[in-house]
Amino acid sequence: MKLALSILFLLFAHTVSARVKLPSVIGNNMVLQQQSQAKLWGWAKGNAQVGITTSWNNKEYKVRADAAGNWMVKLVTPVAGGPYQIAFNDGDLVTINNVLIGEVWVCSGQSNMEMPLRGNSSPILNANDIIVNADNPQLRLFTVGRAATLSPQTDCKGQWNESTSETARDFSALAFQFGEMLQKKLRVPVGLIVSSVGGTMIESWMGKSSLDGFPEVKVPVSIDTVKQPYKLPTTLFNGMIAPLLNFDIKGFIWYQGESNRHEPQLYGKLFPVMVADWRRQWQQGELPFYFVQIAPYGSADKSRSGPLLREAQLKAMSIIPNCGMASTMDVGMEKNIHYMNKTIPAHRLGYWALGKTYGIKGIGYNAPLYKSITIDGNKATLSFYFANYLTSFEKPLTLFEIAGKDKIFYPAKAVLKGGQVIVESGQVKVPVAVRYAFKEFVVAELYNNDGLPASSFRTDNWDDIR
């Protein structure tokens, strides 16, 4: 009897171990990137042959697992559509259902990306109306479970869900509204993968090798006794980005920087390196990377750390290929870093994706960008890219400052003339430099006719910020 039970147990164990195991990002309700060489991968018994059959073409792909049971296959996805099934068979059949083919975006960063539609200590503007109208079987949502490790992981916690009022409520408010805009405009399935943790610095989201050139960033050798390991370099890349690297996507949206505001110069160096490393590890070329500039916040900090971090992000646009920045100069809150209006930055990211990545004509996505300064007597004339006309929407311009060679800035009178701003002050006879909105908290005044606000900027590069 004992022998029979032992044989039965071994047979059962063999059956379980032989069954194909898939990473959480490959499962029911997922979206695969359309018209791509999409990768599917997982684990099986060592050296087992795995057959994968896709219902959109009824084609079977065969792959043999290595000795450790790892396997991967590339398959060609069709144009957007579905729902489909994908069957995996190594002797035991595993089938995933309700699979769509469409557009997939990874959405990452810290708390203003993580903040769900239900809100937290702060509410989300118009959340209940957004939640009520969230039912959309063509929009799929995946949130990566929080995980901080010192070694790159091959899997993460999470599951794909159809967008409903229930599932959208706990999903990133910003990412949801970005994806909703894309889905409605493109009329194809959209999949959103959110990987975000509040209160984190960019170093947490960077792989170890990408930090080799930064000796000032110390990668820990152990996190066993650390209470908040997700705040340490490399830990979130390893736990929450590495498991996604094989999943083909269309692009990234990113909202992070508040936790790096007191090291703007270092951030300006780290950010392009992180983007380049993510692209290298995804192995899909220069994937679109659209990011939100941190919003104005607070007024007690006299070091100008906020505008300096915004400046570092603004400069990144000229360093990082195929990127774009959404300005939030008009939605920040002086006393709350988690501002309520996530619709505006979500839509501005959507403008970048729709206009630049998908090539839809007529959509403005570039905000006014400072181009040059010309001095004539006591007046400074500023010119801009992406602004044939500038506007303040009939409100006075109060955020310009002007300085002479003494580097002392005075409030300036500013007048719009087409796509230029003419700035002067009776206290500055020979202007040398102009700044706009270069403070911790401001509310935007300068826009182009697409309603996009100019970033804070300065024409000088003086280290002595006053």
Automatic annotation (TrEMBL):
The keyword Membrane does not apply. GO terms for biological process: carbohydrate metabolic process. GO terms for molecular function: sialate O-acetylesterase activity. Pfam families: SASA. Residues 103-341 form the Sialate O-acetylesterase domain. InterPro entries: SASA, SGNH_hydro_sf, SIAE. Residues 1-18 form the signal peptide. It comes from the Bacteria. Keywords: Hydrolase, Signal. The keyword Hydrolase applies. This is Sialate O-acetylesterase. It comes from Mucilaginibacter arboris.
